[in-house]
Write a structure and sequence with these properties.
Two copies of one chain form a homodimer.
Chain A (H helix, E strand, L loop, with lengths): L1 E9 L16 H13 L6 E2 L8 E11 L5 H12 L4 E9 L11 E9 L13 E2 L6 H8 L4 E4 L14 E12 L2 E8 L6 H14 L4 H10 L14 E7 L4
Subunit structure (chains A, B): Homodimer.
EC number (chains A, B): 5.4.99.12
Protein name (chains A, B): tRNA pseudouridine synthase A
Chain lengths: 248, 248
């Protein structure tokens, strides 16, 4: 039995999310089915994060234990061949120690949230960015974002369905950058609550539109109350970028 | 009657190309149908360039004459509403003089061709870039590209269906730039022959793979013979970027 670590890129649009669901397609199921087709084994794949429906992956990390003796490169090639026509690609595959765990060994996760700040409808980016029509004040958003960096009770920015034990998390980075009509919001932490990035982005957008002051964002944070959330951004613009591990 | 100039973004994947076709959907037809829905007029739209099936537009310029009295902004908004669900967006609309012609007044056209130089299959970029598995030597491609800049007989790089009177064109720019595993090839000229950019990119890719020397590219150019073409790149990676006019 070998534990293989995978780096996975996926387009979240056709999926109910990463995690296997009874009622629709998932990234997990597509990869597990590909592993079965290649090895004849019903392996379970574990990921660094469980992304929601419509959220994308640039370099998700995941692992599975497979008994069939295969070189990592050959396994990757075989899985990519079997994953068609799903928009999922295995970018890298390596054998890892048996105690390495894509989720529990992970010490850092990063996301990027992409916004198209324009009036015109989207064409090839439909479902891949969040279109915001109102002009966004990037400087105000960046200033507001710094109020969320650090150790806070993020109850306001947490889905009612979040299963984390504590709403207290340490946000290491939240930066808003603009290039032309494109905004990218970079978020980094050891771990995130369910919907945390989308909820933070939604409230930052309210600040950018001028509908919220920076003080309003601070008050929402301090309310520690989901009802104080101003806006949850859609999944379209959210990408899981990278999982960090102590050694790999 | 007012002549309106449009700036159009479109995803070429679902279309047989810009130009109206009897046997399938086209960007031209979708916009003309939207104009009819908005104005009740069967206007004909003229574009700076007629892109092939699968080729995309970042900022194509086009014009149409419309009798109905409408402010440009309102016309743009109405057209965008009617264009759904087609992946076509009117980015800008303005009233122009009656002698302004999107095609005949145009004095410069630019394209970008996007390559993903990687082994893994594409996910959300499927149909939006050309995936090339073999490692590409960008420096060799850039050096070879300079052999095509200037005034040449581009018969080798011209489709058999090209309707231009002369195969002699002046290429003002052909630059190959790399960022990570992405290549962007920028081409600028007053006008291009049919398939010229894709044919030039295909041959540059052969140089990048090491299958052609820079001398082979020069020989292909000097052969002035379509049979000397090494490779025609697929439409996936090609984007019409910009049309230049003396005044607008």
């Amino acid at each position: 039995m070998t534990r293989f670590a995978f780096t996975v890129e996926f387009d979240g649009r056709p999926f109910m999310g990463w995690q296997r669901q009874a009622h629709g397609p998932s990234v997990q199921q597509a990869i597990e089915d590909a592993i079965f087709a290649v090895s004849g084994e019903r392996a379970v794949i574990h990921a660094a994060g469980r992304t929601d429906a419509g959220v994308h992956g640039i370099a998700m990390r995941a692992h599975a234990d497979i008994a069939k003796d295969m070189a990592p490169f050959r396994l990757m090639e075989a899985l990519n061949a079997r994953l068609r026509p799903h928009p999922i690609a295995i970018l890298a595959c390596e054998a890892v120690p048996d105690d390495w765990h894509a989720r529990f060994s992970c010490v850092g996760r990063s996301y990027v949230y992409r916004i198209a700040n324009r009036r015109a409808p989207l064409t090839w980016e439909n479902g891949l960015v969040w279109r915001v029509i109102q002009p966004l004040d990037t400087d105000a958003m960046q200033e507001a974002a710094q109020l969320l960096v650090g150790r806070h009770d993020f109850t306001t920015f947490r889905s009612a369905h979040c299963q984390a034990e504590s709403p207290v998390k340490t946000l290491d980075r939240l930066d808003v950058e603009r290039s032309g009509d494109r905004l990218a919001i970079y978020a980094e932490a050891r771990s995130f609550l369910h919907h945390q990035v989308r909820s933070m982005v939604g409230c930052l957008a309210l600040v950018g539109m001028g509908r919220w002051s920076i003080g309003d964002l601070e008050a929402a944070r301090d309310a520690r109350d989901r009802a104080a959330l101003g806006l949850n951004a859609p999944p379209d613009g959210l990408y899981f970028v990278r999982a960090r591990y102590p050694d790999l």
